[in-house]
Amino acid sequence: MIQIGIIGAGRIGKVHAESITRFVKGAEVKAIADPYLTEETKAWANAMGIAEAYGDYHKILADPAIDIVLICSSTDTHSQISLEAIAAGKHVFCEKPIDHDVEKIKAVIAALKDSKVKYQVGFNRRFDHNFMAAREAVKSGKIGDLNILKITSRDPGAPPVSYIKVSGGIFLDMTIHDFDMVRFMSGAEVEEVYAIGGVLVDPAIGEAGDIDTAIITMKLSNGALAVIDNCRRATYGYDQRVEAFGSLGQVAIGNDTDSTAVISNGEGVTAEKPKLFFLERYMQAYVAEVSAFIDAVVNDKEVAVSAEDGLKPVLIGLAAKKSLAENRPVKISEIG
Amino acid sequence: MIQIGIIGAGRIGKVHAESITRFVKGAEVKAIADPYLTEETKAWANAMGIAEAYGDYHKILADPAIDIVLICSSTDTHSQISLEAIAAGKHVFCEKPIDHDVEKIKAVIAALKDSKVKYQVGFNRRFDHNFMAAREAVKSGKIGDLNILKITSRDPGAPPVSYIKVSGGIFLDMTIHDFDMVRFMSGAEVEEVYAIGGVLVDPAIGEAGDIDTAIITMKLSNGALAVIDNCRRATYGYDQRVEAFGSLGQVAIGNDTDSTAVISNGEGVTAEKPKLFFLERYMQAYVAEVSAFIDAVVNDKEVAVSAEDGLKPVLIGLAAKKSLAENRPVKISEIG
Amino acid sequence: MIQIGIIGAGRIGKVHAESITRFVKGAEVKAIADPYLTEETKAWANAMGIAEAYGDYHKILADPAIDIVLICSSTDTHSQISLEAIAAGKHVFCEKPIDHDVEKIKAVIAALKDSKVKYQVGFNRRFDHNFMAAREAVKSGKIGDLNILKITSRDPGAPPVSYIKVSGGIFLDMTIHDFDMVRFMSGAEVEEVYAIGGVLVDPAIGEAGDIDTAIITMKLSNGALAVIDNCRRATYGYDQRVEAFGSLGQVAIGNDTDSTAVISNGEGVTAEKPKLFFLERYMQAYVAEVSAFIDAVVNDKEVAVSAEDGLKPVLIGLAAKKSLAENRPVKISEIG
Amino acid sequence: MIQIGIIGAGRIGKVHAESITRFVKGAEVKAIADPYLTEETKAWANAMGIAEAYGDYHKILADPAIDIVLICSSTDTHSQISLEAIAAGKHVFCEKPIDHDVEKIKAVIAALKDSKVKYQVGFNRRFDHNFMAAREAVKSGKIGDLNILKITSRDPGAPPVSYIKVSGGIFLDMTIHDFDMVRFMSGAEVEEVYAIGGVLVDPAIGEAGDIDTAIITMKLSNGALAVIDNCRRATYGYDQRVEAFGSLGQVAIGNDTDSTAVISNGEGVTAEKPKLFFLERYMQAYVAEVSAFIDAVVNDKEVAVSAEDGLKPVLIGLAAKKSLAENRPVKISEIG
């Protein structure tokens, strides 16, 4: 029985704890740690059958019975805890991003070099049934050579401005998933990026130094072209779509809905909106990514999303930021 | 240049006149006749370049220059005019139904026996792009052996009760098209029919001795099963769909819409309603059926919808009427 | 903590055990019983944390710690075990059907009369997200008064003929779900039924005295009309759809698919097939129905699907059987 | 009766002649002119009832009976013939583009200044039922303020390289329609453009100095962002879609198909491909644009697509060309 420790008992930490407990055979959550450990969280941990709930995550790192650590703490602590966990010989599943600072990510990659530790980054969309189906169509040659990749990614509503101030901005907290999807879908690297954007949702976002709406174009290493469009607010729900177009045809994926019900009346023919909430939308993907990581650890397989895969989208995001600031295309090689 | 005379200058007569004038090369409408010939109709005929507008249709039958007659008059006159036109050696395109009286239809069929006259019945749906695509899928074996045929046929709104009183009832004025579609889609004959129905739209229809909502099941000569559902009122438009299910799969056709626009907002994801009006929905089919008839005349081909094809749906309709009245399955062989 | 005993360790028994263990807080499976208890099943039970695995279900009924019994054994044992469980004061969740014999079902209903036992029948589709959305649209008045209810229900492939011989036939093992859906969707009772059918999939099914393809029409107590079409084989998957049409419009539900991927190429625009396997299709519904039952027990609520709800579809199924045999409409009041 | 002369008897000239003859009441084509006037074209003109077929278009300009001239000749003659027709006092419908040379377009605009001549440019998509529905949704406020406009525009196959050599390149012969659509949909002006592209379809296109695949982003005067993706080859047909996303929601339009047929089998659920051929796809739009122009002439209304509307997309196209060449965003104000 693989023993798991979870660092960070916020929303995503709890999601992982519950999905491991329910779905992952041969693994159990032994401990959870959070600097702001509430009575409520303790009660929840107890109900979930988690043996230990700590305030200090070092107790998890120090526990020789624990094989795997999930880092679900705030972003600014990811790289430091990663380094400590690697030093302690724990396998690490780290929520994205590893850091916004390229040097800190590189330090994690360096630490992994001579280590036997498995390290996976939490790009959950790679495990989503829709994105996987699109990737499979591209990979298996069903659309021929990829020519154009289009990603639509719009949140149902903007996060609090307080979050935006520390998030690294739209390209590093939101588009980062889409940058990962560009790499995942295309099997190629982004070489150059150009971004345009605006403050069209909430002026407070602009005052915080960020934009809320963007279109980013990219040139890929395989000659294909890619484009992402983002917005912090879509009235109809969480809008996550991909279109991959190639020499033999196109694969497109749409959103999931709560039901297939369609109502026809004098107003029109109305289907359900996309699922609104990312946890609901990607619940199965959260289970699948952690299951895959545990499988990689147990059976000594390669992880699905490496620390390098964690670095690349940050580089692209920083290039996009620079592109927006300087209104010119920016090569990824200019960054880091 | 084929010369055409149109008997009946109501809605459908005018539709045919306009579509021949616009689309059918090598044919022209020389004359139109209507017992209630208005100044407006005369002006319309003149604008259309129709040389003659008569009150008495016998003038059309007597004109040796006219090759083809389109019978677009009221239903109760179809069989009589058919007989006269056949006797006059005119090729006849007759709007459906030939008559509600089986004997009168048989008289037309008998008159055709030793004649060289081409005779086609106006079951326009056989020429509709959607129905043709479904038929082609069935005929070409794409769904294997037909097992279940389902037809949904709902009008946007009920006709005036005055019409219902003389129409022969729902099975003879509305379902008759669907009975034809059962034969067209299946390539088989209806052997037995069972009908249930109700007055769910308008009590006045019930007072007029008819129903406004029905489900009719049928056993076909090839062993397949069929079902039609009808209603005189669909708030969302003219609803005309078919599903043909067989040993290898299914083909389904839906409705046409004015555009492909889909609006997503807080209320849902809303597409356009089906086209509301049968003339708009089937405009291309009206052109195609008359073109096909002219082609059959000019090139001495078999007509697409024979007088026998005009008889069969009337037999099925009368059997459905009897089934509803007696609440039991009725064999077609019991009728006529 | 509610203690549950499961009688029958076949496919569905295991499904319930796993879903309770994973998803139902405040309840646990204490014991499972199966007359053919294999080592494999024992190992599975052990891995699931089920304390006891018996050959004889009476040990479950005799255990005072057990509050709830799930009857997942073969159909012919349902009513007998129900009676014993009720006598033992256990709350009962019984897989459908309670029995094929109306008198035996009535005996269960009678036994419940003076008992405080909760009894729910396993019509899982009532808990499916799509069917619930359609029901909600009807119930909330979104389509006005119900006029026509259409259910398509086709299995991906026929069960073994050995099963068909004991299943009670297509109307009692397959259509029974659809009969329940007619009542659920309409909120009305079936008063009269007429069935046509054929052996179009496999002659062996005919030799076993059953049909494999059917259309059943029904008159409902609220004046609405209903129709079900069934087939034992749909090459494209498990096809479960409903269309409810009324005075204000229509609600329609389609199938679930593994992903939303659509591939466009020279062949056409191709989406995924419906989910193939009923367990996968209805997994969430299995969880929801048992959760609802446990909630009814714990909080003394009315059960969602009563023993009477278990009786009614059997009556309709027997009427359909009689209708097919005698080729005439049969009133439900003629049965039982 | 308005008399029309058509200059250029190629494909599009004939399309206009036929649609006017069939559908436009109160107008007739009196003459057609083409420097390469074949016997076949003469026979066609005769069959269409066109009185005159000339080799020299000056005969049309000299005919005082002719009110309207349609310029359907090769692109390099558009501006010169426009100037002559304006001088002759003819109302002009000119196929797009007026010219590739900004100065020549400006000369036409200047010539119109003190003239009473109506001048419309042939941007047919503005009259397409789908594009109009999307425009209407935006204009009427159904999606709130426009934030992101996405246009997908892919041809079924590349034109001959000989055409590409004289066409002005992808941005001026293909994307020009999409640039017009950006203005039409948004009701705003393009201020800055950035283009990336590649030769992914046919190396011969690259050798001719052009690209065959492109993504173009734009900043609009109302603050919205726009993106177009183009490819010269889509195996599944002529792919013309728009997505307009705003503060209240989104409107999206898809392609038209030959039928609504959907075939479900073991391979998947397959719908028809988009219509393949632009003439078929936009036939109604060709009729509508000429009808609108004739209406503008007869009733002295403003034309739907002015000479200025003809100039703007050329400016954007030239900016896109410069952007691609210099790999930097280019302001429209830098051009012309």
TrEMBL record, chains A, B, C, D:
GFO/IDH/MocA-like oxidoreductase domain segment(s): 131-251
Pfam family, any one: GFO_IDH_MocA
Record protein name field: Inositol 2-dehydrogenase
Keyword field contains Lyase: no
Keywords: Oxidoreductase
The protein's Enzyme Commission number: 1.1.1.18
Gene3D superfamilies reported for this sequence: Dihydrodipicolinate Reductase, domain 2, NAD(P)-binding Rossmann-like Domain
Domain of life: Bacteria
GO molecular function, one term: inositol 2-dehydrogenase (NAD+) activity
Entry similarity comment: Belongs to the Gfo/Idh/MocA family.
Organism: Candidatus Stercoripulliclostridium merdipullorum
InterPro entries: Gfo/Idh/MocA-like_OxRdtase_N, GFO_IDH_MocA-like_dom, Myo_inos_IolG, NAD(P)-bd_dom_sf
Record carries keyword Oxidoreductase: yes
Top enzyme class: oxidoreductase
